Amino acid sequence: MNDQPNQQPLPSTLYTEEYFLTACEGYDEFTASEGEHLSRRLSAAFKLAEVSPGMAILDVGCGRGEILRHCASLGADAYGIDYAAVAVRMSQTVIQSVEGIAPGRMAVMQADAKYLPFPDGVFDRVLMFDVVEHLHPWELHTAMLEVHRVLKPNGRFIVHTAPNIWYDRYAYPLVRRVRTLMGQGDRYPKDPRQFGVAVNQHVHVNEQSIRSLGRTLRRAGFAGKVWLDSPPQHRQENLILAGLRILAFKVPPFRWFFEREVFAVARKV
Predict the structure, then answer these.
(1) Which residues are CB-neighbours of 228 under 8 A, at least 6 positions away?
(2) Distance separating alpha carbons of residues 220 and 102, to the nearest angstrom
(3) Neighbours of 3 (CB within 10 A)
């Protein structure tokens, strides 16, 4: 693809132990439970895999390793790869902590998602949680072709990515304006990328919408369902704001812009 020269892969050194323990999704739950408990977001994505005993699972971008632990606890054989050496070390620590306890086998290695070191058609499930946004478009396409190659014919590819780029581009400015009128503007910077974890400004290079992720999956030979979701909101608000929130998060086309997370479950065509 002709955009490769201008879109070099992010250095793996950006992904430090501090990143995984203070910025990467699920760090609070991981720190508190050593990976025994998953965050709401990771739990929602993991449930979609419907892991069962005897399955072979590949976690692309396994990070700290807690997903490997949960797969093995269900009796599946779990294999993880990560671009960052520190992630491999952290995952190995998690694996060692449950060896002999979890019924499934576990292994982790340092590898590039664009060059998966596995034979064709060996995995029942391939997971890609919070990885998509870290890969340039050409990298993501290549990585998905590799997923297609190593997945069994009847296998399943599960993806989670955030944020929904349409929220940042179109909904966030409106949210910021409303919050400013309510006297809360200091909590809503002009750039939505400064609203959450600051480091994501440097490592998020390919945030998705429901449409773009679906298109990317189809180009790589997958068919399936792509949808949006958001964490539950528990706020004390007046009736007007509560009504607007229901409209934004429940009614198309508004929810296409206000929902924050993108999920997909796909199969090989």
Answers:
(1) 164, 210, 255, 256, 259, 260, 261, 262, 263
(2) 34
(3) 9
Say if strands 222-229 and 77-82 run parallel, antiparallel, or are unpaired: unpaired
Are the C-beta atoms of residues 129 and 42 closer than 8 Å to each other?
Answer: yes
Residue extents of the structural domains in the chain: 11-268
Q: pTM for the whole thing?
A: 0.89
Higher pLDDT, 198 or 30: 30
Instruction: Decide the pairing of beta strands 77-82 and 106-110.
Output: parallel
**Model pLDDT for residues 89-141, shown as the tens digit of each residue:** 999 999 999 988 999 999 999 999 999 999 999 999 999 999 999 999 999 99
Closest CA relative to residue 113, chosen from 131, 91, 95: 131
User: In 3D, which of 73, 71, 50 has the Cα closest to residue 155?
Assistant: 50
Please tell me the distance from the alpha carbon of residue 99 to that of residue 87, in angstroms, as a whole number: 18
Determine which helix (DSSP H) or strand (DSSP E) holds 91, and give its type and residue range: helix 85-98
> By C-alpha distance, which of 236, 246, 84, 58 is closest to 157?
58
**Domain 11-268 part of CATH 3.40.50.150:** yes
pLDDT, average across residues 32-42:
94
- List the end-to-end C-alpha distance of the chain, in Å, as a whole number: 22
Q: Find out whether 267 and 156 touch, Cβ atoms under 8 Å.
A: yes
Determine the Cα–Cα distance for residues 21 and 66; give it in Å rounded to an integer: 12
Rg (CA), the chain: 19
Q: Is the model's pLDDT at 71 over the cut of 90?
A: yes
